[in-house]
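Hi V.,

Quick status before I head out on leave. The structure for the redesign project is tokenized and pasted below; the design run finished overnight.
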């Protein structure tokens, strides 16, 4: 009887072949038990069969128009807010109320041109050069540590004349692409060899090293918020790539706690920010000034806001309102309704990004699209948590909204990669 059960289980779990002789995944209920965290692998195999059954094939077509529209809308709103939030300080500091707007438009023009060009490059070119892009990102991060310029305690920029470049922004997409390349290259090994050595070393440790190299270099720049964002994005890609969740949580959790704990111990200023956030009696005229004024701005907006351009807290109350705290000025001028609109726009971006990732032609492009989408979503979510005082003030910009050169140009370049992937999605015949 046991032999019969074995034969039945073997038959149910064996791959089924289609008319072309290709193997189909075993039907649900088979005897083979997949490891947790391999949902992407199972889903992609099942999707291949659904595409065949529904006569769906991969075709080249135009970029994803809903995503392009969402990007354009958020970018236009952000540009308007950069001017509205910055003109008082620009007039005082630069004697030109349009100083920040002019520079932002230049960044948008450069980034938009790069986005257009990159959207036409076939995704297989990105895959081919991914290791080189990752190596370049590591090289730039090393250059920062040697000849980088500092602002305060942080050393994050490379200065070329009057232009400054922040390599940690490029490192975000580089680590996403490298992880996607790794999981695509070793897909068969990771999802067929279920030995403990493969599960731990190839499925958890090696992707963790790809992430840790970038995170470690960014942490050496004393850029804690950038390190956290890169780690969160990487973990999302790794989990979707198919890892054993238990081992991943144990190993990454222990390493992350040790790294952050060591950083806080060696950098008292970062620890002080956390203590200030936890202290209800923190000095609102000192370390808690920016956060407190940001909350005043949000509260002053009410339901419909005080009107576009009519913010009062941007007049030397909220520090550098065109940067990390731009969302507070938006809330003051556009109110609760305006805040909900922005949140919904980011939610729409995430939804459309996941649609592109789902329809992507292979594991590499699917994970790249997913990682880029997660980057925007995570960063927007954390920025809103910072300005609403839910987490300590860590200097996180709001994607497409905050004023900035490197961050905006690199972000628009990432959108070019995302739109390039959308050109090669699966469509009905």
């Amino acid at each position: 009887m046991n032999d019969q059960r074995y034969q039945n289980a073997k038959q149910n779990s064996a791959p089924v072949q289609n008319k072309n002789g290709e193997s189909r995944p075993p039907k649900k209920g088979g005897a083979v038990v997949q490891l947790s965290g391999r949902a992407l692998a199972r889903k992609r195999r099942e999707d291949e069969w659904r595409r065949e059954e529904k006569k769906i094939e991969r075709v080249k077509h135009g970029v994803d128009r809903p995503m392009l529209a969402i990007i354009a809308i958020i970018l236009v709103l952000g540009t308007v807010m950069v001017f509205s939030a910055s003109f008082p300080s620009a007039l005082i500091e630069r004697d030109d109320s349009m100083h920040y707007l002019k520079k932002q438009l230049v960044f948008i023009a450069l980034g938009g041109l790069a986005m257009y060009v990159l959207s036409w490059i076939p995704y297989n070119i990105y895959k081919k050069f991914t290791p080189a892009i990752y190596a370049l990102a590591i090289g730039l991060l090393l250059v920062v540590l040697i000849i980088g310029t500092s602002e305060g305690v942080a050393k994050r920029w490379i200065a070329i004349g009057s232009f400054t470049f922040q390599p940690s922004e490029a490192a975000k997409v580089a680590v996403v692409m490298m992880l996607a390349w790794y999981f695509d290259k070793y897909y068969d090994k990771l999802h067929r060899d279920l030995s403990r050595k493969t599960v731990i070393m190839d499925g958890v440790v090696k992707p963790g090293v790809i992430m840790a190299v970038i995170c470690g270099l960014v942490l050496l720049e004393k850029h804690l918020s950038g390190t956290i964002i890169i780690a969160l994005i990487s973990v999302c890609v790794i989990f979707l790539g198919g890892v054993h969740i238990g081992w991943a949580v144990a190993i990454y959790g222990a390493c992350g706690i040790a790294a952050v704990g060591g950083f806080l111990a060696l950098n008292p200023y970062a620890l002080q920010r956390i203590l200030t956030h936890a202290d209800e009696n923190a000095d609102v005229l000192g370390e808690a000034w920016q956060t407190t004024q940001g909350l005043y701005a949000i509260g002053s907006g009410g339901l419909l806001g005080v009107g576009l351009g009519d913010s009062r807290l941007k007049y030397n109350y909220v520090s550098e309102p065109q940067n990390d705290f731009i969302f507070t000025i938006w809330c003051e001028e556009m109110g609760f309704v305006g805040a909900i609109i922005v949140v919904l726009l980011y939610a729409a971006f995430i939804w459309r990004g996941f649609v592109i990732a789902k329809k992507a032609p292979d594991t590499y492009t699917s994970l790249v699209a997913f990682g880029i989408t997660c980057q925007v979503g995570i960063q927007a979510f954390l920025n809103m948590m910072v300005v609403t005082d839910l987490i300590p003030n860590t200097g996180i910009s709001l994607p497409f909204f905050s004023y900035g050169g490197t961050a905006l140009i690199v972000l628009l370049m990432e959108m070019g990669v995302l739109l390039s992937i959308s050109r090669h999605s699966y469509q009905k015949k």
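Above is the designed sequence. Strands lie at 16-17, 23-24, 56-58, 149-151, 154-160, 163-165, 426-428.

G. will cover questions while I'm gone.

Best,
W.
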